[in-house]
Each structure stands twice: as structure tokens, then as C-alpha cells.
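Data follows
____________
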Amino acid sequence: MATLLSDLLTVLGVRHTELYSDKRFSQMPFRSMFGLSKLLREYGVATAGISVASEERRNALAVMPVPFLADTPDGFIIVEKIGGGQVTYLSQHKEFEASIDAVLDAWNGVALLVSDSSESIEPGYTRHHVAEIASGVKRWTLLILLPVLLVVGMWADGLYCHVAAWVVMIFDIAGLWFSWSLVQKSLGIHTAAANAVCSAIEEGGCDEIAQSEASSFMGIVKWSEVGLAYFSVSLMAMLLFPQTLPALAAINILCLPYTVWSISYQKFVAKTWCTLCVCVQCTLWLLFVAYLIGGWTKQVFPLGWDFVILGCVYGVVLLAINRFDDFLIKRFAASSSASEVKTS
């Protein structure tokens, strides 16, 4: 995620890579304006810290060269443009516009003036840029190979001729996305797509449910992690071992009572709706219908070793996801601590 340093370098037009800049910002030894100034000098950006008295701030704001960093109670903002009685600025990686009076009320007079030149550039920029391009290529290659893998899996296993199997695959992928979005919500990560879905029923409902005590099972694992494990294992098991479809249908049936509890909790206890959660519950029922139409629910009994092995795989994957989430939470906490820049 972009940091204050990356945002500032972007506004200045200094050539840099987000990954390296964010890493350097998180490693900044001095959590202060001095430390940020020292870091900017590595990029060839000159800085000057100033403190303006309250009675002089309005006049100073009119003549200060943009962009510059202004200190507010919510942290530094990057002032990009001043004109027509309005101030355009970046805060928390988003652009805002406010009146000069509003900015003067928030600004404590402390600012960091910055100035770049034609020689301003990230140290080792060429090497970092090539690595960034390679990373992007890997990402796109993965996105291309995944659907190819799905189609090949369906074809190799002979499932391509079963419409119900295609429907199961589509719903597993959809459930995987819904669950992943909920995991991100629980970690405080917001994406435009997830936010758009969440606002369909009730604005802010997803965040409220995702952060509530009911979002986890006895405080051990989050329900979103359970969903992520369920849909990912179900998808891979169907593609790699199609003979497990009856066992997958049995496990799906065992999940249905949870959907009743989840909907009841949102309606009667939380009194707020999490659109992503509702989508997961609907997906589980749609999967049940697909298994039913495909005839796999008729083959559930007797339960065999496939059922037991799948249960163990679900458990292992769930614990792995939970451990990974714990790791991410610690990293985000460290990153948040590192992103705090003091004025002194």
C-alpha cells in the first residue's frame, strides 16, 4: 500500500517504485520530520522545515510553493494546489478539496517544504523498476494461467460435459472472492470492488460485522477464513479429484445450518446487513442446488474415506490461512507504527 513518501514522490514527479519507497519509509530510523527530510535527500529532493505563527498562516499559505507537507491533528497532508479560496490536498492516499479556512483551522503551522530537480530519482531506480515490471508480469501470468487451469481441469476430468459441474465451479469461484473480500475487511483492507458490493444493501454493514465478535468462531478462527478454506479446497478437490463430488455435496449440506444462524444474527442481533456475508450464504445454497441437480447428493451415503480426508484437508488449510492472517495483522500493525511521522 502506498505510503506518505510514495504519494509525495508521485506528486513531485520523481521517478520511483512504490515497493522500494514504501520499504524505505517503513525502515525510516527517525520517526520524525527530520527522518523524512533525510530520506527525501536520498531521492535528490531538497527540504526545509518551517513553523508559522498563527497570525501569519493565511498570508504564508498564499505564497508557499506547492506541493508541501502540512501538519494536522490527523497527520501530514500533501498540499497540491491552492487557488480560488480552495485547497486541494492528499490525505491517506486520497485526494480532497477544502476551503482555505478549513485548512487553516486544522493546520498547526508546521510544514515541510520540498523541491525536486531534474536529477531527482530513486537510488537504484532502473534495477527496482525492472523488478517491478517482472512482478507485474508474474501477476498477469498468474491471472491468465488460473482460468486455463480451471478449463483444463474440467476437460481432463471429463466434467466439461456436466453443466452442473460448471455451475459448481462458478459458484466456488464466486464464494472464494466473497470470502477473500471478507478476510480483507477483517484485516482493515478496503477495495473499491468490495466496497461497491457492501454498499448494495447497507452502507458500512460489512465493516461492522467483520469487526464484531460474531465474525469469529469462539475467537479462534474467523468465519471469513472458514469460507476461504471451504471454497478453495472445494474448487481444487473437484478439479483434481472429481470422484470426491459426493463428499463435497455432503460437506456443503453440513454448512447450510450456519447460513440460517448468520442471517438470523444479522437481522435480529446485529440489526445490520453485511452484503458480502449474505452473498456467501446465498452461494452455499446455490451450490446445494447445483449438487442436487448434478445428482451428487444422492451419492452421499455411505460416507467414505473421501469425506474424512476432505475434512482433514479443510482443517489444515483453515489453520494455515489463520496463521497467515495473524502474520499479516502483525505486519500491518508494524507498518502502521512505522508510518507515524512526528513533527519533532
The chain is about 60% helix and 10% strand. The two ends are 25 Å apart (CA to CA).
